[in-house]
Amino acid sequence: MDRTTPTVTGTTRLPDSLCTHTPKCPSADSPDREAAHVVASHPEQGWSLLCNGVLLFEDTGELLPDGGVVAPHRPVAAVA
User: Where are the domains of the chain?
Assistant: First the structure.
Protein backbone atom coordinates (compact mmCIF):
# COMPACT_ATOMS: atom_id res chain seq x y z
CA MET A 1 0.00 0.00 0.00
CA ASP A 2 1.58 3.26 -1.14
CA ARG A 3 0.84 6.01 1.40
CA THR A 4 2.77 8.80 -0.28
CA THR A 5 2.32 10.81 -3.42
CA PRO A 6 4.98 12.77 -5.29
CA THR A 7 4.81 16.55 -5.21
CA VAL A 8 6.10 19.07 -7.72
CA THR A 9 9.33 19.57 -5.76
CA GLY A 10 10.10 15.86 -5.63
CA THR A 11 9.50 15.46 -1.90
CA THR A 12 6.72 13.26 -0.65
CA ARG A 13 3.86 13.75 1.76
CA LEU A 14 0.91 11.78 2.95
CA PRO A 15 -2.25 11.97 0.84
CA ASP A 16 -4.20 15.21 1.19
CA SER A 17 -7.05 13.22 2.75
CA LEU A 18 -4.97 13.13 5.96
CA CYS A 19 -4.51 16.90 5.82
CA THR A 20 -8.14 17.95 6.19
CA HIS A 21 -7.51 21.09 8.22
CA THR A 22 -7.30 24.65 6.94
CA PRO A 23 -4.83 26.05 6.15
CA LYS A 24 -2.98 23.07 4.68
CA CYS A 25 0.15 21.90 6.47
CA PRO A 26 3.52 23.21 5.33
CA SER A 27 5.36 20.82 3.03
CA ALA A 28 8.25 18.68 4.25
CA ASP A 29 10.75 20.93 2.45
CA SER A 30 9.34 24.12 3.98
CA PRO A 31 11.31 25.87 6.76
CA ASP A 32 8.23 25.66 9.02
CA ARG A 33 7.66 21.91 8.40
CA GLU A 34 7.44 21.25 12.16
CA ALA A 35 4.18 23.24 12.27
CA ALA A 36 2.34 20.42 10.50
CA HIS A 37 -0.30 18.55 12.49
CA VAL A 38 0.55 15.28 14.22
CA VAL A 39 -1.23 12.29 12.64
CA ALA A 40 0.42 9.58 14.78
CA SER A 41 2.15 10.03 18.10
CA HIS A 42 4.23 7.48 19.98
CA PRO A 43 5.76 9.34 22.92
CA GLU A 44 6.76 6.04 24.53
CA GLN A 45 9.02 5.49 21.51
CA GLY A 46 10.00 9.15 21.18
CA TRP A 47 8.55 10.04 17.76
CA SER A 48 5.58 11.58 16.00
CA LEU A 49 4.48 11.43 12.37
CA LEU A 50 3.43 14.80 10.98
CA CYS A 51 0.80 15.34 8.29
CA ASN A 52 3.49 16.26 5.75
CA GLY A 53 5.29 12.93 6.18
CA VAL A 54 8.06 14.18 8.49
CA LEU A 55 9.03 11.95 11.42
CA LEU A 56 9.77 14.24 14.35
CA PHE A 57 11.81 12.79 17.20
CA GLU A 58 11.73 13.93 20.81
CA ASP A 59 15.35 15.09 20.59
CA THR A 60 14.12 17.51 17.84
CA GLY A 61 15.80 15.53 15.08
CA GLU A 62 13.77 14.83 11.94
CA LEU A 63 13.58 12.21 9.21
CA LEU A 64 12.23 13.71 5.99
CA PRO A 65 10.06 11.76 3.53
CA ASP A 66 12.84 11.81 0.92
CA GLY A 67 15.22 10.11 3.38
CA GLY A 68 16.96 13.33 4.39
CA VAL A 69 17.92 13.89 8.00
CA VAL A 70 17.72 17.06 10.09
CA ALA A 71 20.04 16.93 13.08
CA PRO A 72 18.61 17.68 16.53
CA HIS A 73 18.37 21.40 17.08
CA ARG A 74 17.44 21.99 20.68
CA PRO A 75 17.88 25.56 21.83
CA VAL A 76 21.11 26.20 23.69
CA ALA A 77 20.61 27.35 27.26
CA ALA A 78 21.68 30.94 27.85
CA VAL A 79 24.40 31.43 30.45
CA ALA A 80 23.75 34.33 32.80
Answer: 5-69
